[in-house]
């Protein structure tokens, strides 16, 4: 039950966040790795059964363990929860709302439109980035900036994943191109707001705020109508991924 298990999980399943972790201070990396490993586990818990009740039982197990950790009770030995407890302690209980937000995934209930997607992304990707940024020194007065960055990055990631989400009934209730365009516009505007207020955040928080490679390029393609989010996911090459992370490491520019 070591940090290495969490590291391998994030490296293999969330390469962009893994790359960003390597940019963080060495003393901050365990907190990010364990948080991101937890996020992967609670995101996939509702997908491990097609039966809503069984899916919710799997998710509830995570919610209960996190709630117990929040009261100071150590979790059972576990590849993710044990390292999480060692690094976060009682603060791991702050992740309960992050897990609660996945309940709708258990029901395989599509989202009704852009407003519902914004709410969902705020409760998932938004909470995740908020926890990570706070751990890396983001001050209280910068919470709105972090929320904007999280919304922009989270919506872009959600739109990229839409071809996989739609068949699972986790996307939009109807494949309306206008909804995808609206969401891309909301994401772009949120990223621009965050960039304008970047001075409120310390460089230490860079790793928590990284939105991933070619985010604005992708959003621009959706806005122009060049990308149909319901049927295609533009590839990100390994070169593009490495180049974006190298730029992050060299400049500390998490904004776009």
Task: Give the gist of this structure.
By secondary structure, this protein is an all-alpha fold. Helix content is 65%, strand content 0%.
Describe this protein's structure.
This protein is mainly α and 256 residues long. It has two domains: 1-109, no CATH class; 115-256, no CATH class. The protein has 13 helices and no strands. The chain is globular. The mean pLDDT is 96. This is Squalene/phytoene synthase family protein. It comes from Paracoccus benzoatiresistens. InterPro entries: Isoprenoid_synthase_dom_sf (IPR008949), Squ/phyt_synthse (IPR002060).
Q: Structural class of the secondary structure composition?
A: mainly alpha
Number of strands: 0
Q: Estimate percent helicity.
A: 55-70%
Biggest beta-sheet profile: none
Low-confidence stretches: none
The gyration radius over C-alpha positions equals: 18 Å
Average pLDDT level: 96
Number of separate domains: 2
The shape is globular
Q: What's the SSE pattern? A: HHHHHHHHHHHHH
**What is the count of DSSP helices, taking H or I runs of 4+ residues?**
13
Distance between the termini: 38 Å
Percentage of residues in strands: under 5%
Pfam families: SQS_PSY
InterPro entries: Isoprenoid_synthase_dom_sf, Squ/phyt_synthse
Protein name: Squalene/phytoene synthase family protein
């Amino acid at each position: 039950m070591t940090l290495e298990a969490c590291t391998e999980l994030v490296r293999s399943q969330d390469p962009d966040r893994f790359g960003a972790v390597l940019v963080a201070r060495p003393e901050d990396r365990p907190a990010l790795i364990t948080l991101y490993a937890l996020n992967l586990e609670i995101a996939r818990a509702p997908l491990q059964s097609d039966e809503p009740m069984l899916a919710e039982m799997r998710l509830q197990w995570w919610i209960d363990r996190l709630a117990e950790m929040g009261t100071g009770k150590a979790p059972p030995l576990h590849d993710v929860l044990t390292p999480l407890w060692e690094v976060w302690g009682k603060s791991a209980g702050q992740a309960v709302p992050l897990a609660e937000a996945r309940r709708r995934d258990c029901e395989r209930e599509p989202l009704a439109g852009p407003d519902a997607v914004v709410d969902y992304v705020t409760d998932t990707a938004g909470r995740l980035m908020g926890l990570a940024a706070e751990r890396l020194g983001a001050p209280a007065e910068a919470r709105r900036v972090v929320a904007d960055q999280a919304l922009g990055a989270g919506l872009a990631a959600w739109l990229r994943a839409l071809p996989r989400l739609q068949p699972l009934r986790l996307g939009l209730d109807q494949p309306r191109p206008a909804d995808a365009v609206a969401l891309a516009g909301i994401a772009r505007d949120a990223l621009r707001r965050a960039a304008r207020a970047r001075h409120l955040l310390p460089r230490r928080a860079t790793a928590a705020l990284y939105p991933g490679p070619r985010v604005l390029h992708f959003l621009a393609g959706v806005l122009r109508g060049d990308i149909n989010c319901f049927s295609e996911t533009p590839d990100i090459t390994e070169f593009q991924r490495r180049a974006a992370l190298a730029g992050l490491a060299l400049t500390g520019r998490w904004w776009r």
